[in-house]
Design a protein that fits this description.
About 35% of the residues lie in helices and about 20% in strands. By secondary structure, it is of the alpha/beta class.
């Protein structure tokens, strides 16, 4: 008989008022067979050591990891995890039907005893920079939430994404002099990258909150946030949720700082607010990987302590398929003891996501012309790359137009 997972919201409600810090973990499907094999072992170790309330597995853009994501989620149920399967509803199709592939994935999950779904719109497919809706298909995560409730009733617990600083698509670059006109709430959300300031303006943030309320009203029963590094941003976001009548659990998503390059890339990609003190500290250690990991533990533990004090229901770790920093944080919190000394990341090079070889705007790549930064992705997956290897007069840099397969992403 198939084991059936409980719903996450029921588990959270059952824990309310109990002592102790609750954790959950998130993984992604690795690109190689060795990576998958090692991930199975890591998931089992971390389940034994941490007893997470639930375990997420991500779903690649356009269903690019559909089979592997499902395989991993089904195995989670069989091995005692409460699986939380991410599902994107766009750029997917079965025999030309953009709804059938989503329905089949939901049915397969249901048949396997999975009872928790993270309903997402999804990123652009690998090699593309812009997202477009398929004719006759889903246009957003709200559509997916409605579809799940229509077709499967209350069988699934449904989580949705929340963006404490605004969705990256709603974050805009400020024009010269505009920063002086920002409201107090806008200043608390703004971020700075390469000398430019970005913010989700109040009118856009209001639209974000209204949309989030629609997702909850349609049947979502939990929110998992986008990464953040400033705890005050999370606290303000929870207050905004309550002010808008959104009363489901708001679970903080915690990006573990494992490496300088990954930290810079992800914070830039998401336009995440990075406190000046954190930025300066990371810059001072950028050439010392061991120091970055050690600081990742220290910083992560401080963030978690503040979140627990603020009443966060669960600490949800984006593990990046690694364990050392997570263990270091849980050791510091007193959840575990001396696990960081037992951690084994000799397989780290295998823990690369499916599709991560594709570059997006802002990624560093190399080609026969040297290294460069992707400035634009054009139709046909043509990358517009600004050279970092050559510099012309007056600081000008050559630009190359490279077809996919003619450049390699740098990690």
């Amino acid at each position: 008989m198939t084991s059936v997972n409980p719903k996450i919201v029921d588990l959270i409600n059952a824990k309310e008022g109990e002592d102790g810090t609750i954790t959950s973990l998130e993984y992604f499907p690795p690109r190689t067979a060795d990576g998958v094999k090692n991930l199975y072992a890591r998931m089992e170790r971390m389940k034994t050591n941490l007893n997470p309330l639930f375990t997420d597995i991500t779903w690649g853009a356009g269903g690019s990891t559909a089979d592997l994501s499902m395989e991993l989620a089904v195995n989670m149920v069989k091995t005692g995890h409460v699986a939380n399967l991410h599902l994107t509803c766009t750029n997917m199709s079965k025999n030309g039907d953009p709804v059938a592939a989503v329905h089949d994935a939901l049915q397969q999950a249901h048949d396997a005893g999975i009872r928790n779904i993270v309903a997402l719109r999804g990123d652009p497919p690998a090699g593309e920079d812009e997202w477009t809706a398929a004719e006759g298909g889903f246009t957003c995560a709200l559509d997916l939430v409605k579809y799940i409730r229509k077709e499967f009733g209350d069988d699934f617990g449904v989580s949705v994404a929340g963006y404490p600083e605004g969705h990256p698509n709603a974050i805009s670059e400020l024009k010269e002099g505009e920063e002086a006109t920002l409201s107090e709430s806008e200043l608390a959300r703004c971020s700075n990258f390469d000398g430019k300031t970005y913010v989700c303006k109040d009118e856009d943030f209001k639209k974000e909150m209204i949309y989030l309320k629609e997702k909850v009203d349609a049947g979502a029963d939990a929110i998992i946030t986008q990464m953040f590094f400033d705890v005050s941003v999370y606290i303000s976001f929870v207050k905004e949720c309550r002010d808008y009548g959104i009363n489901v659990p708001v679970i903080p998503g915690l990006m573990c700082i494992n490496a300088y390059g990954g930290f810079k890339k992800m914070s830039n990609f998401c336009k995440t607010r990075v406190p000046k003190s954190l930025e300066d500290k990371m810059d001072s250690m950028k050439d010392d990987p061991a120091a970055v990991k050690a600081f990742g533990v220290e910083f992560g533990a401080d963030v978690c302590k503040s979140l627990v004090e603020a009443g966060a229901p669960v600490l949800h770790f984006y593990t990046l398929n690694l364990e050392k920093v997570v263990y270091g944080i849980t050791d510091e919190l007193g959840i575990t003891e001396n696990l960081v000394q037992q951690s084994n990341e000799s397989d780290a090079k295998n823990m690369v996501a499916v599709g991560s070889a594709w570059a997006r705007v802002g990624d560093k790549v190399k080609s026969i012309y040297g290294q460069g930064v992707v400035k634009e992705i054009r139709s046909g997956s043509v990358a517009v790359v600004e050279s970092q290897s050559w510099e012309l007069a007056f600081g000008q840099r050559p630009t190359f137009y490279l077809q996919k397969g003619h450049y390699e992403k740098l990690y």
